[in-house]
Structures are given as C-alpha cells and as structure tokens.
Amino acid sequence: MAMFSALAFTGCASSDETEVQRYAWPLATASPEDTVTQIFSEKFAEEVSRLSDGKMKIQVYPNSTLGSDRDLLETCADGDIPFIVQNTAPQVAFMPDLAVFDLPCVFDSLDSCRETLDDPEFYDLISEVYTEGGYHLLGMADQGFRVMSTNKAVHDFTDFKGQKIRTMENSYHLEFWKNLGANPTPMSFSEVYIGLQQHTIDAQENPYEVIVSNKLYEQQDYIVETNHLPHLISLIVNDEFFKNLSEEERTVMTEAAEIATEYAREQSDQRIADRVTVIEESGTQVITLSDEVKDDIISNSQNVYDSIRKNVSKDIYNAYLGIE
C-alpha cells in the first residue's frame, strides 16, 4: 500500500505535456473480473489512455486485490488509491445521504432509474455528497435490479414470511426485508454459497450478474423478480488528486467516464438477458410478481421511506423521487 501511496499522485509532468506518465494509477474494485464493475473499470482505463494519446495510464485491480469495499473507500479518501468502482450500499456508512439509493421499489424500469441519475439537478446534488466525503464522482452505471433467489416459490406477499434471507449489513436493507415478514441475516458474501448449500439460509438477494457469476442459482429453485433496488455502481476518484490534475487531464477523465458509463449500461442490459437464459436452462424458475404483490411490498415498506427521509437531504430525497 505504501507503494500505491507513492504512485497515486505521480502523473504526467505538467512542464512537458509530451511526457508519458511513468506509472499507471491504480483503480481498485472488490468485484470479480466477470462483472459489469470490471467492464466499467476497464472501459474507463481504456478511454483515458485513448483520449490522452497514451499519456495517461490506469491499471485495474479487481476482486479485492487491494482490499475490501470498506478498505478501498478509506484508502481512496486518504489518496493511497486514487480510483475505485463499487456499489453505493457500502458507501452509506461514509456518506449517509447516499441512503437515498436504498429507497425500495422506486423505479419500474432501469431506463427511468438512469433518467433520474442523469438529471443535472440530481447529479449535481449527489456529486456534492461525494465531494464533501473527499471524493469526486465521475460516473454511475448499474448491474440491473437486485432480485431474490430462494427455495420457496413466492406468488403471494405472505410467501415472504419466515424466509431466512442473507442481506448486506445495511440497516435499511434489513428493515425492508423485516417488513416483508422475512428473517434477514447479514452474512459475508464469501459464505453465501455454502450457507445456501447447507441450508443455514433459505435465500439471498443480488443482481442477476452476481447470482450467475457466483453460481448461486445452483443452490436455489427460484428467482423472484422483486426488483426492489437498482444495483448502482459508482466510479469515484480522490477529490484532491482530481483537483491537482491539469484542466486537460480532468477533461480527459470526465469524457472517458461518460463513455464508460454508457458502455457499462449497455453491457448490463445485454448480460442480464444472457444470465436469465443461463438460470432458466439450469432448471431454476424465474418468477415475475403480480402488480398486487408489488403494491403490498410498497405499502409495507413505508417505514423504510420514513427512516431514510429523516437521514438524508430533503433536496436529494425529493429529487430522487421526483417530488416538486
């Protein structure tokens, strides 16, 4: 890590714009290589190199090579690792306003979610949250919606009752599943496959991408399209590092991030369809919930909305929900 601390702020020499960067800046993720997170990261690094004519270099380190999500957030804030790409959920502990992304069942489609994220007013508000946290937000893509995998079919709201479901250690996620009558259990992701195999848990929730890349569907009979949260992935850079770059370098990174974000979203849509096919061909059944069940989920989630509204900026909350 000391080496990365030394390299993080070694850029192109400002006195000689033709000099090529001596060391590649590290970009770290805690996600496996066969994911949209990796695609997003690699595309950004590729575009930075292309747009700078090879003067600027970024090296991607996936799969927690440089630390867990929490480790990466801390080292990015300290400047040891300038770039990270990760889901917004673990960032809530560092930037409470990001809990707005934990509001359940806000969007009916990914297109409407992306439209909100790209709205200039909302994007500026969220960008300021990252800036106050010591980061600069370069872009936000997604891995589709989070869905539930389980060994018990869910056709009615009461079918959620008693199911022991693994969640991330996020208070709003826990509250959501409790309101559905389930028994949410925080667990390290590395233990989930074995937990399903040994029946210490009945279910889990993740985007299709994660369910397939980690073969969780092998231990589950059903995928229930709860679509309760978009699985958002943010590309962020240490704010001080970004400000110390030349205007030309900042422009390159901003443009590269825009291209990478759009590309990652396109890949996400394509890969979701592919992964649904993989799951269905394995014999695991995909269940689409009725409008009645969806309405029951929303009506039983109102105290999650209340909790989040109390803990995030009113402007951010209203902008995310489209409240005037």
Detailed description of the structure:
The chain is globular. α2 (36-51) packs antiparallel against α10 (247-281). It has 324 residues and is an alpha/beta fold. The protein starts with a helix and ends with a helix. It is built from 13 helices and 9 strands.
The biggest beta sheet is recorded as:
9 strands, mixed
Put simply, the count of helices is: 13
| Mean pLDDT metric | 93
Can you give the helix content as a percent range? Answer: 40-55%
Q: What is the number of E strands?
A: 9
The portion of residues forming beta strands comes to 15-25%
Question: Quick gist of this model?
Answer:
By secondary structure, the chain is an alpha/beta fold. The chain has helices at residues 2-8, 36-51, 69-78, 110-118, 120-132, 171-179, 192-197, 208-213, 239-243, 247-281, 291-299, 302-311, 314-321, and strands spanning 25-28, 58-61, 83-87, 135-150, 164-167, 183-186, 203-207, 222-238, 285-287.
Task: Give the SSE layout.
Blueprint: H1 2-8, E1 25-28, H2 36-51, E2 58-61, H3 69-78, E3 83-87, H4 110-118, H5 120-132, E4 135-150, E5 164-167, H6 171-179, E6 183-186, H7 192-197, E7 203-207, H8 208-213, E8 222-238, H9 239-243, H10 247-281, E9 285-287, H11 291-299, H12 302-311, H13 314-321
Parallel strand pairs: 1-2, 1-3, 5-6, 5-7, 8-9
Antiparallel strand pairs: 3-8, 4-7, 4-8
